[in-house]
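Q: Structure tokens for this one, please.
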Amino acid sequence: MRWHNLEEMRVYAQAFVKEREGGAFGLCGDLGAGKTSFVRECVETLAQVAARPVPRVMSPSFVIHQQYDLTKTVDHYDLYRIENASEKDLLEIGYYEALSRSETGNFLFVEWPEKAQSIELLHLDAILTISLEGNCRIVHLQTLSA
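A: Here is the predicted structure, written as tokens:
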């Protein structure tokens, strides 16, 4: 799939959250690929569905975790600054609590999941990879087996 502009990303994000009953999703891609922008569009969609004010979605690069409480909770993690994140690191940042919420109809997005010691530690449902090619973004969704 290709996104040529923000509107195409918005349409995909709207469909993404409306077609799913929550879940845990990794977001891979270079700096500036659009990982946080994708989460922003998902949060905006969920806020509109819930008839709630749209929260300001910012990259959690420095704070590691942002949480947005709408009708569904959205947990947004960025592991960029946690090199080789261990199970202990994930426990300390409340990751497994967020993962538990994602199993009950809420959403968990993890930027830079490849920074974990093992991708299996994250128990993701799917990984969305965004890569830049010229003026567009190439998007690949890989569902992970349970």
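A few notes: The first strand starts at residue 2 and ends at 3. The chain has four helices and seven strands.
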